[in-house]
Amino acid sequence: MKGTYALAVVSERSPEMLxxxxxxxxxxxxxxxxxxxxxxxxxxxxxxxRDVIFLEEGDFAVITKKGIELTDRAGKKLxxxxxxxxxxxxxxxxxxxKHFMHKEIHEQARALTDTIRGRASVxxxxxxxxxxxxxxxxxxxxxxxxxxxxxxxxxxxxxxxxMIETLARIPVEVDLASEFRYREPLVDARTLCIAVxxxxxxxxxxxxFREAKxxxxxxxxxxxxxxxxxxxxxxxxxxxxxxxxxxxxxxxxFTTQLAAFFLLAVRLGRLRGTLDVPTARKHLxxxxxxxxxxxxxLKHEEEIKQAAYKFSAARDLLFLGRGPQYPVxxxxxxxxxxISYIHAxxxxxxxxxxxxxxxxxxxxxxxxxxPRDSAxxxxxxxxxxxxxxxxxxxxxxxxxxxxxDDDKMVPKIVECAxxxxxxxxxxxxxxxxxxxxxxSYHVADHRGTDVDQPRNLAKSVTVE
Length: 464
Ligand code: M6R
Description:
Elements: E1 5-11, E2 14-23, E3 28-31, E4 36-39, E5 51-54, E6 60-63, E7 68-71, E8 83-84, H1 100-106, H2 108-116, E9 120-121, E10 126-127, H3 136-140, E11 144-149, H4 151-168, E12 172-176, H5 177-180, E13 191-197, H6 203-214, E14 218-223, H7 229-233, E15 236-239, H8 252-272, H9 277-298, H10 301-311, E16 316-321, H11 326-340, E17 343-348, E18 366-370, H12 380-394, E19 399-404, H13 409-413, E20 416-420, H14 428-447
Parallel strand pairs: 11-12, 11-13, 13-14, 14-15, 16-17, 16-18, 18-19, 19-20
Antiparallel strand pairs: 1-2, 2-6, 3-4, 3-5, 5-8, 6-7, 9-10
Helix pairs in contact: 2-8, 2-9, 4-8, 4-11, 8-9, 8-14, 9-14, 10-14, 11-14
The structure holds 5-amino-5-deoxy-1-O-phosphono-D-mannitol.
5-amino-5-deoxy-1-O-phosphono-D-mannitol binds next to helix 4 and helix 11.
């Protein structure tokens, strides 16, 4: 057989036996007590076993309840590593929440704690990344970083670019994986290619990662699923430790990817000497405070829900942000459209005057990301975004704003105001995205859509 496949075949004559084969698509085998399992993703079998084997390209397996026999394409016996997954079955349950997405939004403080744990040393002003073997010599030899990802992971990568360029001063390009593969990318042995993927199985991301590696790039993966294809093919892996994400709409994967990027940016900054110890300490202190700021933000759920109900009949919605808040605007729009089916667009607020402002009227609600960061009392982005709010209002637009909790100005000039705590500008997207997730969730729930499994979408996109 040629092409991309993951097959499980059963014959009427041997109903107790499954024959499986895979190429490019994911396939995982679960080893149980008196039963063995086949699935495309780990959470599907977590309730039965945590001992798994990830099949490699071209592997075959014959599965009975007694055992599993593995061979390669040529029929030669194989011995693949059994991995113990540290996710528990309850992690793949709703635990009293109406939807997985809601549970996963509320898990973000815990998930971020797990991403950061054991990696950030505030005292030493440095970061220790298990699974990443980048040293000062390797990093000095890099002339650029190229990030490839899709969907929400691509949005996280846009923020990751800002983090790395600010803290480590290395040029970073971010590509949609589906575009990168087919455009003769300028990548060589002096490039670090970072693939970002929750599932670690997204076909376009995997394909572009392979493409970059085949041109000599070193490959670093930021992944959530341990042992996934992208992680297996990487030279360095930075696991996000978010726990299983089951809702199709990515939430905790996004915030933990941002935390992972921040850790990497600090580490690269230290290795390149662009970040001194006192500054790194300050950044890591802010990182350590994040889980408690996330908890604080989640306490605003009721007012976010009221705002969501108020705007749930909208046909279109615009999200605006500047600087580090621009990727949050893109992510907010993606979340809303994928689960509520409301048409939404994310825009860099400064681009309004180049076209989208023509759309503004009372039927086009605008969500504006207008937080201040603690580093600058006001900051250029904040001043400018106030101007953008006025532009929208002057054209009869209705504004929902996400603003800093000590800001007295924004709540006075907008229809709905959602307060969030402050932190440094690069980490603020981890906080400001939370109201956009809850807003989308409550709009979708109010409209009665299938929040966890929106139409036409799959959790892992293993086809091109
Ligand atoms: O598993 P990945 O992070 O590679 O998935 C990438 C996208 O398919 C994914 O983020 C998708 O956009 C989500 N449904 C967004 O919520």
